[in-house]
Amino acid sequence: MPNAPHSAANVGSDAGGFRVLGGGDGNLRIAAWGYWPAEVISAFLASATSAAQSLAPAGVFVFDSKDLKPQGAEGQEALRVLFRALARVPFAKGLIIRGNAMTCMQLTRLLRECEVDRRIEFADTQAFGS
Known about the structure:
By secondary structure, the protein is an alpha/beta fold. The chain is built from 4 helices and 6 strands.
């Protein structure tokens, strides 16, 4: 449901998980970390893709991947689903907070595959203030 607040609760464990921060303000922030097991991937598919619908045309999307490890095939597909959902939603700015170089390369490829690479840019942790 658009404009519905999304939980800020962590999903997963210290080894791998995510948190969705979004709400009625039209902005969306997703923090992701570690390597995702199957249960985290399933939860991500359900919550992150529906949260993408909460973005407003003037909204900002931020994907904090500074602690995310490169994902296996299933985790990559979950990220593709999110990026494809974002490709269909108008928003003003998209940022990925970069961390691990291999994860950054993987995300760059996935963004390009989903044709959203021109709408989302990478930012350093220091530049973003995280």
